[in-house]
Amino acid sequence: VSQRPEFRRSSGCCNRWSAPARQDIPDPDPLGEVSFDADPVFGATRDLKEPFVIRPAGSPDAYQERVQQGSGIDQVSMAMVPLVRDRTTIGVLGFVKFGDRPWDMGETNALQAVASLLVQLHARIDAEDRLQYHAYHDELTSLPNRRALVDEIHRRLTGGTGQATALLFLDLDRFKAMNDFLGHGAGDRLLVTIAERLSNAMSPGDFVARLAGDEFVFLLWRPAEDVDVLAVADELLRLVAEPIEIGGHHITRTGSIGIAVGHLSSTDAEDLLGYADAALHLAKTKGGNRAVVFDDGLRIAADQRSATELLLRDAIDHGGLLLHYQPEIDLRTGRLLAVEALVRWNHPLRGVVPAGSFIAVAEESGLIVDLGRWVMAEACRQMAVWRRRYPQLRFIMRVNMSPAQLATRNIVRLVADCLNDNHLPGHAICLEITEHAVMEDVEQAVQALHDLKSLGVSVAIDDFGTGHSSMSQLKRLPVDCLKIDQTFVAGLGVDRADRAIVEATASLARSFGLDVVAEGVETVEVVHELLSLGCYRAQGYLLSRPKPASELEPLLSQGWLDPATFTQTDEATNAPTTKAVALL
Ligand code: C2E
Ligand code: CA
Ligand code: CA
User: What is the dihedral of CA 293, 294, 296, 301, to 10 degrees?
Assistant: First the structure.
C-alpha cells in the first residue's frame, strides 16, 4: 500500500513482493515490542472488532513520536483490521500509508477481505495441528498413544544406534472391578494419576505411552545392557501402588509389568509389544503385582500360539471344524429337553480336540467371531434336519456365543439369517452367554440381548455363579435360563458351600421365573442332590458325553433317556435305590 519507491521485487522467487527491510533500527527498537497498556493506539487494537483508521491529526503525539523514532517516518496514516475468530480478536492487520492520507471504504473493505482469509487459514492450521495431536495422543491422560509408541519403537530399533531397547508393559491389577465399584469417573482419575506418576519417573529420553484402558508402556532410553531393567520395573510398581485418594476413598491398586528387550533388526515394534504382552500375561497369572521378563521359554509358547492361530484360521476357512452335541435331560423323566452345540476342531496332528483347548486362542486372536458364525450356521442347519426328522420332539438347540460375537454390530442380522435360511422358528434356538461376558458391559449386553430376543430366540446365562452378578443386574437382563457352573454342581454332596450356591441359584431362578440347568453332572449323588433341590434340568457326562450328530440318533428317535441308565447304583456299595427312580 505504500507509494514509496523502495518496494522491490524479491530476488528469489518470481512475482513475489517483499517489504523493504527496515534500516538503521535503533536499539532498543521503539516499535519492537509495545505493550497494549503503554500506548493508547496499540491498546485500542486489543479488542478491535471493526476497521479502525488513524491519521496524524487524530492520533496522540506519543504514538506518532514512537513511530517516528522506530521507522524514521514523520507521519503515518494507519488502517487496522481485526482478525476475528469465534468473536475473539486474535490479532490485527495494520496497513500504513506514509504521510497524512485518507483511507476510503473500498480500501478498508479489501483489507477486511484479506483479514478474513488469514483467519480462515489460521483456523485450518489450528485444526490440522489438533488432528495431528489427537492422532498421536491419548485424550484422557494426554500421553502419547499406541500409534505414537509404535513410531517411537520403530525409530529406536532402526535408528542406527545398535542399542537394545527395553520395553515395560504395565497393566493395573483388577482395574475393572474398581471401575465398576467406584464408577468410571473415579477410574479416569486413577488413570490420570498413574499417567502423572509414570511421566514423573521418566529420565530424559524415556518415553511413556498409554495404549488403552489401564495399559501403559514405558520405553527406556538407556541401552538395556546398561540398566537393571527389573529394578526399574520394581520402582514403577512401587509408584503405581502408592495410595490415591478419590472421592473420599483411599485406593491402592497394584500393577503387573511384562518386560521385553528388542534388538536392532531382529525385532519390529509389534513383535516387541507382543513379547512384552506375553510376559505381562504370565505376571498376571502368577497373581499380579510383579514384573516378568520375556525369555526363550515364553518365546516358544508365543510361537506355538501363533502357529495354533494360523492352523485354526485355516480350519475355520476350510471345513476343519465340527460340532458335537450334548443332551440336556429332565432328571425326573429322562426326557430330552435340549442339546448343546459344542465346537470341535479336527486338528491335523492331534485329531478331534475339544473346545476347551482352543476357544481361548480363538478369543484372544479375534478368530472367535468367524468361528462363532460357522457354529451358528451349522447348529441351525442340524437343528432343521432334526426337527424335520423328529417332528414330535420338543427340544431346543443351545448355541454358545462369545462376548466378542455378542458385541459385533450385525449379530442380530446374522442370527436372523441363520434362522431364515433353515426355516427355523426363533424358539428352537437358545443362545448361551457367559456371566462374565454379560457383566463386562451390562448396558451393552442388555441392549444386544433385547435385540436378539426380538427374533424369538431364548437366552441362557452360562457358567452362572462365577461372574458375581448382583440381583439388581440380573433383574434387568432379558434372560430365560441360568446354567449353574459345573464347579458348583461337582461339589454337591461334598461341599456345603456349593450346595448353598446351587440352592440359592435354584430359588433365585424360581422367583424370576427362569429355567435352571445343572451342568457337569457326573455322579449319581449329584443327581440326588439336584432333585432334592428341585433342580431337574441337567447335563453332564453321567447322562451323556457330547457326541457327533449321528451318534445322537438313538436318543432322538426314542426322545428320552432311561433314568435307570444314569441312576444305577454301584452294586459293590449296595447303595439304596435312587430318588430319581423313586420319583418316577
Ligand atoms: P460350556 O459352555 O460350559 O460347555 C460345557 C463344557 O463342559 C464342554 O466342554 C463339555 O464337554 C464339558 N462337559 C460336559 N459335561 C461335563 C461333565 O460332566 N464333566 C466335565 N468335567 N465336563 C463336562 P468343551 O466342549 O471343551 O467346551 C468348553 C467351553 O468352550 C464351553 O463351556 C464353552 O464356553 C466354550 N465353547 C464350546 N463350544 C463353543 C462354541 O461353539 N462357541 C463358543 N463361543 N464357545 C464354545
Ligand atoms: Ca455352554
Ligand atoms: Ca457352562
Answer: 130
Report which ligand 1 atom has the smallest distance to the Cα of 546.
11
CA atoms within 13 A on the CB side of 127: 6
pLDDT for 395-407, tens place per residue? 999 999 998 899 8
Backbone torsions φ then ψ of 183, nearest 5 degrees: 95, 160
Q: How far apart are CA 536 and CA 333, in angstroms?
A: 9
* Residue with CA at minimum distance from ligand 1 atom 42: 400
Mutate to test the pocket of ligand 1, among 400, 418, 481 (most ligand atoms within 8 A of CB): 400
Provide the pLDDT for residue 436: 78
User: Can you say whether residue 567 is alpha, beta or left, with left for phi > 0 and alpha for psi between -120 and 50 degrees?
Assistant: alpha
Beta bridge partners of 113: none
Q: What is the pLDDT of residues 90-140, one digit of tens each?
A: 989 988 899 899 999 999 999 999 999 999 999 999 899 889 899 999 999
Q: Mean of the pLDDT values across residues 222-247? A: 88
Measured between alpha carbons, how far is residue 240 from residues 169, 195, 325, 434, 547 in Å? 13, 9, 48, 32, 50
Ligand 2 centroid vs 15 CA: distance in angstroms? 76
Ligand 1 binding pocket, CB closer than 6 Å: 326, 342-343, 354-356, 359, 368, 372, 375, 400-402, 432, 462-463, 486, 519-522, 540-541, 546
Mean pLDDT of the chain: 87
Distance in angstroms (rounded) separating the CA atoms of residues 560 and 548:
18
- Under 8 Å between Cβ of 275 and 294: yes
Q: Which residue's entry shows cell 520395573?
A: 233
Give the C-alpha distances (Å, rounded to integers) separating 259 from 82, 300, 324, 358: 55, 16, 41, 26
Quote the ligand 1 centre to 432 CA distance (angstroms).
11
Nearest by Cα to 194 from 216, 212, 177, 176: 216
- For 579, half-sphere exposure in the C-beta direction (CA atoms, 13 angstrom radius) is 13
488, 502 contact by CB (below 8 A): yes
Residues around ion ligand 3, judged by CB within 5 A, are: 462-463, 519
Going by their DSSP bridges, the two strands 481-484 and 515-518 should be labelled as parallel
